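Hey, quick one: can you model this chain's 3D structure?
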Amino acid sequence: MTTIRLADLDVRWTGTDNTTPTGHVLVLGIDSLGMLRVCLYAGDAPSDATFRGSLLIPPDGHTQRYLPTQTTAYGPTGAFVTSIGDQTAMLNRLAGLAL
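Sure thing. Here's the predicted structure for all 99 residues.
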């Protein structure tokens, strides 16, 4: 995996909710492989320079061996970070990587 560029996402929603770490914004979109992602960006507006990582949300009941079976966090370079915890915990962990 590599960095996810905004231009490569089919963006469905941008904003904050109760899972968003302070000082960050979320982008919900479909990546170039057709996978649902929640991407985390530092600041008030998303930009490639402030990308902090993403959560891959695999489809329920999929049979593809290359996909995780549960929501999984990946860092800004695409490296695996964690699949432990809920969405809030994973997003906070991604936000903490930049500290």
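One thing worth noting: Residues 7 and 71 are 23 Å apart (CA to CA).
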